[in-house]
Specification:
The complex is a heterodimer of chains A (278) and B (382).
Chain A (H helix, E strand, L loop, with lengths): L26 H14 L7 E5 L14 E4 L5 H11 L4 E7 H7 L1 H10 L4 E6 L2 E2 L5 E2 L23 H8 L3 E6 L3 H13 L4 E6 L3 H7 L5 H11 E3 H5 L10 E8 L5 H18 L1
Parallel strand pairs in A: 1-2, 1-3, 3-4, 4-8, 7-8, 9-10
Antiparallel strand pairs in A: 5-6, 7-10
Chain B lengths: L7 E6 H12 L1 E6 L6 H13 L3 E4 L3 H13 L3 E6 L1 H17 L3 E7 L18 H4 L8 E3 L4 H18 L2 E7 H5 L1 E6 L42 E3 L13 H16 L2 H4 L2 E4 L6 E5 L3 H14 L4 E6 L1 E3 L3 H9 L4 E6 L5 H9 L4 E6 L8 H12 L1
The chains are: A alpha/beta (278), B alpha/beta (382).
Chain lengths: 278, 382
């Protein structure tokens, strides 16, 4: 039997057999797409750190064969900033859930994007808190049903990409689990970008969100993503009312800007020059 | 100013002395959020750290600060944050994370009057419990209480060494008086520096959380060294794999507890005077100890047999030290502290059956005056 190409990057002694995600979940797909990006860039395993927080998405790092940093719920970007400042040679990839990045860890996202730290932040947006049983999150659409919005959700959702872009991220993109090739390319671009790369991946949670909103299993949810996605370029020419309930996918930001760690190390050089002069 | 050790005699504020202690000990990263009365630590480090090739970050809040500090520590750097009581409240989640991941880091708490926002510019010793028991469940930490700017230097160096040795978050439990007071600080030519234990085995044979028989502290490779470190806040086995098994939990929590509590005698630092013939002992820590010392000296001048004991290490609590003085059967132990009587409970637990333990609480803002302690000594001895 042919072995799955990602298995050589996988830790087999972690909980689950082989992992703890539900059948049809989008997270293992994104795990593999991240591996593909690493493989295609021919990066050294021992110079990559995977960072995660708490929750279904947070567990992604614990299956990565190399160094991993399984941190606090919502705070991977803070911990990752510390690592990156101490060791700028490491490629640091953070996987976070929608609740983490837009809810409890909102300030970490805002500040990390504002500082423009050289990290790759991949946000798995499945519209709910999956691990705790499917409660609404800051990205749950209005009207959706979750365990804590059983009467229909009344809050407005965040547009994560707009948030990241406004805060200063130098690379911002959104794809869904259906857009495998585009997503892998975006992760590659994100890793290579010297600055904060923010990649939102719309992902399926068939066990909680799909079931409660009668969208169906993993495959049916992915078909929903395919049906409802519209490229940014096309969306720009489409009337606003037709964009309702659509996922606008593509690259939103791709700019160059001084990176946080590099700027800080610039201050060390500046002080050295001054002390030589004196 | 690009020297790590600013040898010589200085007139320093406690907060400034703390900065120099950190840099002398090898601190490379500081992240902190402005807060009275600890802000001066950030201000000096914001240029001083760059002079020695380190990095200063102003955190967006206390959570941001401590996450950055822990991240840098896991990448192999010595790192520190500084705050006051309200900031410690916000840091509690990260303190527990540093405890379970066994990450060395220094947290300076320049205590101020509370609760809540309290009186920001005034002093208190209100945080002695929250630094010890603030985060969820069981773990151990180390806390040192300086009484002077000189000790802000000395104990900050010591704190880094202890933190690296035992892989625990270590606190400098100062207060507004010690932080803002200016005094002579002598910085020596050299300071003793301890680095964390590195792995003896090559990566293939290395188990991240396996300890050697003579110690409860595993070696700590940094990220990027090829050891493929699994750092996680979940209960974990020796391989770092998450587990919900009772035996794994028992082994891990016991070790997190024992690695400090079993070494209490090695860690403990105290200062004492006139204990030999003491009928009454005045016990204190931090800035209050200055008033206590003054009162004891006055009592001695008046011919009273009064002893003096100062706890420099607050946590782990030095049971043996208290037990030994209780065995001398003094008439009483007087314990002034700037809170409603917190550490006195520890003293009562250890010495309460052998001798009378008299708490002398003050609720913050105002330090005990030497005269007040002296008057209490008089009342007790009469």
């Amino acid at each position: 039997m042919k072995k799955h190409p990602a298995l050589k990057y996988f830790r087999f002694d972690r909980p689950g057999n082989p992992h703890l995600w539900c059948p049809g979940c989008g997270i293992p797909q994104i795990w593999y797409y991240t591996i593909k990006a690493i493989e295609e860039l021919k990066l050294d395993i021992d110079k990559i750190l995977w960072v995660g927080g708490s929750g279904c998405t947070g567990r992604m790092c614990t299956y990565w064969i190399g160094d991993y940093f399984h941190t606090l719920h919502g705070r991977p970007l803070g911990f990752a900033t510390g690592v990156k400042l101490a060791n700028p040679e490491l490629t640091v990839i953070c996987h976070m859930g929608d609740g983490e990045v837009a809810g409890i860890g909102g300030n970490h996202l805002i500040q990390t994007a504002r500082r423009n730290v050289d990290l790759t932040a991949i946000v798995v947006n499945n519209f709910n808190y999956g691990m705790t049983g499917g409660q609404f999150s800051p990205t749950t659409p209005r009207g959706a049903f979750t365990m804590t919005s059983q009467l229909g959700h009344i809050e407005y959702p965040f547009d994560l990409c707009k948030l990241a872009a406004t805060c200063g991220a130098t690379y911002v993109a959104r794809w869904t689990t259906f857009h495998s090739r585009a997503l892998i390319n975006s992760i590659k671009k994100g890793i290579q970008k010297k600055g904060l790369s923010f990649i939102e991946v719309i992902s399926q949670c068939p066990t909680q969100y799909g079931r409660r909103n009668k969208i169906g299993n993993g495959m049916q949810m992915m078909k929903w993503f395919k049906r409802s996605s519209i490229r940014k370029e096309k969306a720009e020419k489409t009337p606003k009312e037709e964009l309702k309930d659509k996922f606008i996918v593509g690259e939103f930001v791709d700019i160059e800007k001084a990176e946080f760690g590099a700027s800080l190390r610039g201050l060390i050089k500046k002080r050295r020059k001054e002390s030589v002069k004196n | 100013m690009n020297k790590r050790i600013l040898s010589g005699t200085h007139l320093f504020q406690g907060d400034e002395a703390c900065v120099e202690g950190a840099i002398a000990a090898g601190c490379n990263l500081f992240a902190g959020y402005p807060i009275t009365p600890a802000t001066e630590i950030s201000e000096r480090l914001s240029w001083r750290l760059f002079d020695v090739g380190g990095i200063f970050v102003q955190g967006a809040d206390e959570l941001d600060s401590l996450t950055i500090v822990i991240g840098a520590a896991c990448a192999g750097w010595k790192s520190m944050t500084a705050t006051s009581g309200n900031g410690i409240c916000l840091m509690q989640e990260c303190i527990g994370y540093a405890a379970i991941t066994e990450t060395p880091c220094i947290i300076v708490d320049v205590q101020r009057a509370g609760p809540g926002t309290g009186a920001a510019t005034k002093t208190m010793q209100g945080d002695v419990y929250q630094v010890r028991y603030g985060s969820n469940a069981d773990y151990s930490i180390i806390a040192l209480a300086p009484e002077s700017p000189q000790e802000m230097f000395d104990l900050t160096v010591e704190a880094f060494n202890l933190s690296e040795t035992y892989r625990v978050p270590t606190f400098i439990l100062a207060d507004e008086i010690v932080g803002h007071m200016r005094e002579k600080v002598v910085i020596p030519e050299k300071v003793k520096i301890i680095q964390r234990k590195r792995a003896k085995f090559p990566p293939q044979e290395f188990l991240p959380f396996k300890v050697e028989s003579d110690t409860d502290v595993p070696p700590m490779p940094a990220f990027g060294e090829g050891y493929r470190m699994p750092v996680s806040g979940l209960t974990h086995t020796e391989t770092g794999s998450p587990s919900t098994d009772y035996e794994v939990q028992k082994r891990m929590v016991s070790r997190l507890w024992n690695k400090v509590e079993k070494n209490v005698e090695k860690i403990t630092k105290i200062e004492s005077a006139y204990l030999e013939d003491a009928q009454v002992i005045v016990l204190a820590y931090g800035s209050v100890a200055r008033s206590a010392k003054s009162a004891v000296l006055e009592a001695r001048r008046q011919g009273l047999k009064i002893g003096y004991l100062r706890l420099i290490t607050i946590w782990p609590f030095p049971d043996k030290v208290i037990e030994n003085i209780a065995k001398r059967k003094p008439k009483a132990i007087i314990f002034p502290e700037m809170n409603m009587g917190k550490m006195v409970r520890e003293v009562k637990r250890v010495a309460g059956e052998r001798t009378k333990v008299i708490s002398f609480p003050k609720p913050g803002v105002e330090l005990h005056k030497p005269k007040e302690i002296y008057n209490l000594i008089r009342r007790v001895t009469n």
